[in-house]
Amino acid sequence: xxxxxxxxxxxxxxxxxxxxxxxxxxxxxxxxxxxxxxxxxxxxxxxxxxxxxxxxxxxxxxxxxxxxxxxxxxxxxxxxxxxxxxxxxxxxxxxxxxxxxxxxxxxxxxxxxxxxxxxxxxxxxxxxxxxxxxxxxxxxxxxxxxxxxxxxxxxxxxxxxxxxxxxxxxxxxxxxxxxxxxxxxxxxxxxxxxxxxxxxxxxxxxxxxxxxxxxxxxxxxxxxxxxxxxxxxxxxxxxxxxxxxxxxxxxxxxxxxxxxxxxxxxxxxxxxxx
Length: 274
Ligand code: SF4
Prior knowledge:
By secondary structure, this protein is of the alpha/beta class.
């Protein structure tokens, strides 16, 4: 049996936020057979997912076919698959507002995209194919979904689309995508960016060997902690808003109090995986 440990920025961040969540999500053999049923659709995930899928489908079309209307048409086609309860919408009004938000993000995307060139890489729409993996150490595989890579001279520019309300992407996450892109495509990365689609703003970080070494060290530190972890204790906090395991959580009462105080739909959750 393979001893390889597969890690992604989302997985590592999840462990750092709540070891108990990590245990439920990846290690709990009792819960594992029911994980799919336990996953609750959430409207804010649906919005992000539909926007990402729309942009991926957009880049499959030839450059001459691409325009703002195509983005809206693709969004509508993709949205129809998640309409109603399937997308976690509580009612038609919430769904309509979310659809308008998604459309606004695509308008912002198109505004900037018109001044940008053809991406070096866009994930396409074949399920499963968008997951990239690369060995970054003995028995250690880094994986993740790269949203977009642009050419940057001879190098690469890794871009992550963000659809959440807060413009606070995790620098660990984007730098880790830099490491992944470099390993998968065997080319140097010189820039990594978050593209916040609600405002259209691009936040860019320079990426170099020093940054890569720092991120690899951080990944190895978290991996060592995961391997040494015995208790996987619950840590009540922002992860609880997107946790599907509240019913099994040893701190369930405390979590329910937190969720009552501030419902996810009213809260600007910043640490979404997209
Ligand atoms: S409900 Fe909160 S504290 Fe409990 S496992 Fe989930 S994220 Fe952790």
